[in-house]
Amino acid sequence: MGFDAPGGADVLRPVHMAVPQVGPEDVLIKVAFAGVNRPDVAQRQGLYPPPPGASPIPGLEVSGTVVAVGREVPPELLNQEVCALVTGGGYAEYCLAKAGHCLPVCESLPLDQAAALPETLFTVWHNVFERGYATQGETMLVHGGTSGIGTMTSMLGKLFGINVIVTCGSDEKCAAARRIGAAHAVNYRTHDFVEEVKALTDGRGVNLVLDMVGGDYVARNLKCLAEDGRHVTIAVQGGVKAEINLAQVMTRRYTLTGSTLRPRSDAFKTLLADDIQRNVWDLVADGELRPVMDRRFPLREAAAAHARMEAGDHIGKIVLEVDDGESGPS
């Protein structure tokens, strides 16, 4: 499923392409499900082009069965069910992945849920725990509490002893976020989240902000931080430019950082996958960590999936189901 030119959700259409050929470190996955993420929407809009060498087809995470392996890949991966972080190409019947970017799918993990894990899990683990240095007993703020990133942050926070405050756009979403694992949820349409954070932390502020908004939210986020607080930016949905008070940064010893995952090196992503397998994957195998699922759409209805994401009504992850014979090779 691809598009000829950037535009609205309706530009997505079935396209016919050759099955990708595996390289030395690749596996070819017969895709069962593909996750839908904000970067897919941005790519379709022409705002987030794929990095050099990546497939032009959208889709950054998949689950399915390995049907071919490269010469440097352990042969035992053949015929195994996996989920994988990919640089593109997920909205298709077959998708290439680096073997080091795959995680095993245990029997208790449904394939639709498996496809909903890699993008958010890799992103949150790296930015909250590796870049943000979150530790047990700390408090953090994340916007978009019922998004894929927001729900994953709340669940990991609860599992690792971090109090997560989220913002949401309705009381219903706030209630859902609390059920999912957030310690507190603030309706940003009816309350000033800066004042609410101060009240919830007895004026101390949070230790970490995971920011997906950017723009004028950055200055407000900094007002939420405790001394020595960390601010990690992972998206700029509200704008790429921010005006901040550098004196505030210096006197309160703030750390501002950020990252994007897609263009990082294959070696980096392999190390990140290894770290997740050591620290988190047992929680998935035991059923303690599962993605929050919103809706699944057949691949042919990818436009409807994008429209749902853009409307902002979803809670958790949206996935596409790839059904043989339904859309043709894409």
TrEMBL record:
Organism per entry: Caenibius tardaugens NBRC 16725
Ranges annotated as spanning the membrane: none
UniProt KW Oxidoreductase keyword: yes
Gene3D superfamilies xrefs: Medium-chain alcohol dehydrogenases, catalytic domain, NAD(P)-binding Rossmann-like Domain
Keywords: NADP, Oxidoreductase
SUPFAM superfamilies found in the cross-reference section: GroES-like, NAD(P)-binding Rossmann-fold domains
Domain Enoyl reductase (ER) positions: 7-320
Organism phylogeny: Bacteria, Pseudomonadati, Pseudomonadota, Alphaproteobacteria, Sphingomonadales
A GO term for molecular function: oxidoreductase activity, acting on NAD(P)H
Name of the featured protein: Putative oxidoreductase
Entries under NCBIfam families matching the protein: quinone_pig3
InterPro entries, per the entry: ADH-like_N, ER, GroES-like_sf, NAD(P)-bd_dom_sf, Quinone_OxRdtase_PIG3
